[in-house]
What we know:
The structure holds two protein chains of two kinds. Chain A has one helix spanning about 15-20; strands at about 25-30, 35, 50-55, 60-70, 80-85, 90-95, 110-115, 120-125. Chain A is mainly beta. In chain A, a hairpin with a 3-residue loop joins strand 7 (about 110-115) and strand 8 (about 120-125). Chain B is α/β, with parallel strands linked by helices. Chain B has a single domain (about 10-125, about 220-390), classed as Peroxisomal Thiolase, Chain A, domain 1, CATH 3.40.47.10. The radius of gyration of chain B is 20 Å and the shape is globular. Zinc ion (ZN) binds near residues 31 and 45 of chain A. Chain A: This is DUF35 domain-containing protein.
Amino acid sequence: MTEERFFRDEQNIAFWEGVARNELRLKKCSVCGVVLAPGATFCSECWSSELTEMKASGYGKVHSFVVYHRAFSENETPPYGVALIALEEGPRIVSAVTGGVTAHVGDDVEAVWSVAPTEGPTLSFSVVNEAGWKRED
Amino acid sequence: MTSKRVDKPIAKICGLGFAELSREYLKSQKALACDAIIAAVADAGLQKSDVDGVVINRSDTNPSDDLPLRLFDDLGFRDLTFGNVLASQAACGVQMIQYAAMAVANGMAENVVCVFADTPILPKRRGGDAYAIDLALTNIPGWERQYGLYGAVGAYGFAMRRYMELFGVGAETFGEVALAARQWARRSPLAFQTKPMSMDDYLNSKLIADPLRMFDCAFPVNGAGAVIVSAPEGGGGERNGAAFIWGMGQGHRGYLAYSDYENETDTPARVAGKKAYRMAGISARDIDHAQIYDAFTVTTLLGLEGYGFCERGEGKDFVADGALAPGGRFPVNTGGGQLSGYYLQGMTQVSEGYLQAANRAGDRQIGNNGWSLVTAQGGRMDYHACLVLSPEKVR
Lengths: 137, 395
Ligand SMILES: [Zn+2]
């Protein structure tokens, strides 16, 4: 099974351009204020379509975490971890935790941007329980 | 809430048939479905001409054309008064029984055959690879694939990890669920996984998406199952026994991955159970045994909690010491479930629930056979449906 792992569609070019600048851009409802996933086109809470874009701070918590011990495609070399990260703004995204397999539910994490050899910038998160979130504001 | 306690059953299940279940590709979904329907009609003591309704539960593992209404051609049905294909995922195994029950209760049909068929195993595909679950949380195509998130094992592994860490649960709790299913499977002629399993066997089984192991996963088979649903009086089942449907419920949600929505460890099974118990005029306390959807060991635990047999997070104590196993406090998945029996999605629980409630379960028959519960679920634990059954036609 070979599937294209680094798929980019026309509709979301602006999102991927954000990623190229090391930015994860979320959507925020102008009416009820809930923060939604990057690809939201209207608000699932109040059904308003007045959404604005906002940049994720990069801080969050581990919502859950698995370590694959089996390769489901030729793109992966197990063992590798996949995490569900609850961003501090609210949305949860699928990502990875850097530095192996030691994450736990509730761990504080912060964004780490890296550049994959051919496919461009990718986002993962590092656990910062001891140090805490280091805000630069 | 407008649901009310009924003073007579809504409908009955009065016949069960299977196609050959196998670990290799023998024939198409449609051909399997036909085999199961023919067997179920015969089991109910009915003729082809008695069948006036057909509901098909199609699996998502193969293209929709594989199990179409064209099934009516093959079986030569004419003048059906009720028919449909349901495709809202695995909860449909139970949902199709509910729609059939409503149809016979309201005179739209007399004898409805409900069929599920699936071929996760294809000549070039292993069973476990058929169940891809798209966890497209960002709504940006391509995002999730970057990280190598594949299959149902990822989504359910997330649920399992979160359940373990929120409630302080170790691997042995999931082992208890797997062991109970295996012990029941050893008593079922339909079950595939019947080799004795110890806790060490469970703990040493291969990790797939840690914390999820091989023995946390359902056992995929190709095959089909069908049941006949008729009005409480009339129809089939006099010969082989009937299970009466007293309560029915569904509970659904959108999977909302933001704010404090808890998708992993708190499911709308709660909603489905409440509705069904209320309709039957009972509570979870009155249920003697249950068939709980167990595609993964964590779904048994969440099902027991969601359907009110214990509080949220207390599944660990509830399943301890072989409580679900033969001779245990609360028999669950008495045919080995999907874990050790066979995975025909919701039809696994429906078929075993029928056999128990109709006192047809042979060596594994539960003596204390009053009220029982049958559940099914689909999606990432988003869609739930259940039946409350009893061997009794009168209260
Ligand atoms: Zn809104």
